[in-house]
Design a protein that fits this description.
With 274 residues, this protein is mainly α. The protein has twelve helices and no strands. The protein starts with 22 loop residues before the first helix and ends in a 6-residue tail after the last helix.
Length: 274
C-alpha cells in the first residue's frame, strides 16, 4: 500500500471583477448626451420655422448686399466698413432670435419640463449654444463668402480669419441673447433689450469714429465692450496679411466674453416666467 499522499488539484484562481467605470467619465458622458439631445431638439424646432431660418441665414446676406450697392460709387467706403458690419450683422440677428426663442421655451412651460428631468442648467445652455452655434457657422459662411467673392470686399488678410471673427461674433450674440432672456417677461421685452445691450456697442465700437478719438470716458466704456474687439479683429484682417498679436488678443477677448456670458446665462436661467 502506497504511503505517498494523493496530490491535490491546485486551487483555481477566481477571476477578478471588472473595475467599475470611473464616475467622472460616466457623468461627463451623460452630460454630453444631454447637451447633444438638447441641441438636436432646438435644431429640429428651427427647421420647422421657415421665417426664423430666413432671418438667421438670409438677413445678414441681404443687408451686406444692400450696403454694397448703397456705396456703389465709393467702393473704398464699403471696404472700410463692410468687414466690421460683417461681424455686427450676425451678432444682432443671433441676439434677437436666441433671446426670443429661449423666452418662448420658458413661457410655454417647455423649459420647466426639461429642467424637471435630469438636465442641468449648464447642459441646457450648452445645448442651445451648440445648436445656434451650428446655425452661426452656416450664417457666417454665407455672409463671408458673398462679401469676399461676390461683392468684392477687399481683404488684405485671409478670408478664413474674417470668417473666424464673424463666427465668434455670432456666438457672442447667441450668448448675450441667452443671458438677457432670463430678465424678460415677454417677447416684446426681449426685443426691448436690444437698444440697451446692442445699440451702445454699435455706437462705441469704432465703426463711425476711431475709438482713440472719442472722449476719454467713452473710450474707457468702449474698451470694456466686446463688440469693440470684434470690430478691431475685423480691421486687423482687413489691413494685415499675417496674424498679428492684436488680432490674437481681439479673438481671445471676444471668445472669453462669449464663454463668460454663457456661464452667467446658466446661472441666471429661470424655469418659467414669473
Amino acid at each position: 500500500m502506497s504511503t505517498h499522499p494523493t496530490p491535490q488539484p491546485a486551487p483555481r484562481s477566481r477571476p477578478r471583477p471588472a473595475a467599475p467605470p470611473l464616475r467622472g467619465c460616466r457623468v461627463t458622458s451623460d452630460r454630453a448626451v444631454r447637451t447633444l439631445a438638447t441641441a438636436a431638439r432646438v435644431l429640429r424646432q428651427l427647421s420647422h420655422d421657415a421665417r426664423t431660418v430666413a432671418l438667421l441665414l438670409l438677413i445678414p446676406v441681404v443687408l451686406i448686399t444692400l450696403l454694397r450697392y448703397v456705396f456703389d460709387g465709393s467702393p473704398r467706403v464699403f471696404d472700410a466698413i463692410g468687414a466690421s458690419l460683417l461681424g455686427i450683422f450676425p451678432l444682432i440677428t443671433m441676439f434677437l432670435v436666441t433671446s426670443i426663442a429661449t423666452l418662448r421655451e420658458r413661457t410655454s412651460g417647455t423649459l420647466e419640463r426639461l429642467l424637471a428631468m435630469p438636465l442641468g442648467k449648464g447642459d441646457l445652455i450648452a445645448g442651445y449654444a451648440l445648436a445656434f452655434g451650428a446655425v452661426a457657422i452656416v450664417q457666417s459662411l454665407l455672409a463671408t463668402a458673398l462679401s469676399v467673392w461676390a461683392l468684392g470686399l477687399d481683404v488684405t488678410g485671409s478670408p478664413w480669419l474674417l470668417l473666424l471673427v464673424a463666427l465668434l461674433d455670432a456666438l457672442l450674440g447667441t450668448a448675450l441673447g441667452l443671458f438677457v432672456s432670463a430678465f424678460a417677461a415677454s417677447e416684446f421685452q426681449a426685443v426691448q433689450f436690444m437698444p440697451a445691450v446692442i445699440f451702445p456697442q454699435i455706437l462705441l465700437c469704432g465703426l463711425f469714429i476711431a475709438r482713440d478719438r472719442m472722449a476719454p470716458v467713452l473710450e474707457a466704456i468702449s474698451n470694456a465692450l466686446p463688440m469693440s474687439y470684434a470690430v478691431d479683429g475685423m480691421n486687423e484682417v482687413l489691413r494685415h496679411t499675417d496674424i498679428t498679436g492684436d488680432f490674437v488678443r481681439d479673438v481671445l477677448i471676444v471668445a472669453g466674453c462669449a464663454l463668460l456670458v454663457l456661464a452667467l446665462g446658466a446661472a441666471t436661467l429661470r424655469r418659467r416666467t414669473a
